[in-house]
Amino acid sequence: MAHLTGKERSEYVQNMFDKIARRYNLMNRLMTFGQDMKWRRFVIKQAQLPPHGSLLDLATGTGDIAFEALRTTPTATVIGADFSLGMMRVGQHLSYGGEVGWTGADALNLPYSDNSFDAVVSGYLVRNVIDIPRTLSEQKRVLKPGGRIVILDTSPPPDNILKPFILMHLKYGIPILGRLVGGKDAVDAYTYLPESTQAFKTPAELAELMRQAGYQNVAYRTFMFNTMAVHWGEKPT
Ligand SMILES: C[S@@+](CC[C@H](N)C(=O)[O-])C[C@H]1O[C@@H](n2cnc3c(N)ncnc32)[C@H](O)[C@@H]1O
Description:
S-adenosyl-L-methionine binds at residues 62, 82, 106-107. GO terms for molecular function: demethylmenaquinone methyltransferase activity. It is a single chain. By secondary structure, the chain is α/β, with parallel strands linked by helices. It is 44% helix and 21% strand. The protein has 9 helices and 7 strands. The chain starts with 5 loop residues before the first helix and ends with a strand. S-adenosylmethionine is lined by residues 13-14, 17, 59-61, 64-65, 82-84, 87, 106-108, 123-125, 128-129.
């Protein structure tokens, strides 16, 4: 991965998700021991979407976060945007799939006007983009003043007594599970996931990038032995 240019890395990520789309949801449930839906519910809680509000689920993938928004706020307008059409095609056939406004979009160049959404949320996007400040700034642009950004992503395992066990799960558990569930097409993806997690920002570093991008009231909460984090903040009014 380190040898790829930004554009090549972007294409690599896009193709990778197209390839694993069919087995993606099952892998999530297995890898996280069924915890991932709890974090998605927390993301939507932090979005504080008003009735009839508008939400953009950026990097929606198969739509799990978008579906959670529709489940808790059925009157909301929910747009799911992603650059992997394969992932969104899977989501279209799931329950609530008919109620999401699925859109092909790049998180670095959003096809929406300024001040469009009450909330912009994302799950496992920021670790994958080639320019984090750029996506944070694009998300701020399309948020209404006072609108909320919420980000769910993995975090590098902190230095503590659990680190060797977490590294074992990342280095061996997840790639082996990926191969068993997704076959050889999934090997790259579930090797990339642990590598990109270890190379990603710590929760404190990501919070600082959000502040630098101009968000206010930035805060975060970590889950699963600090290996998962949800960050939130607001666009100034
Ligand atoms: C791990 S999946 C997460 C899907 C979903 N948010 C979830 O929580 O399950 C990451 C998604 O991010 C998308 N993605 C990565 N970089 C992107 C970018 N620059 N623009 C749009 N989507 C992107 C991928 O196509 C993929 O569907």
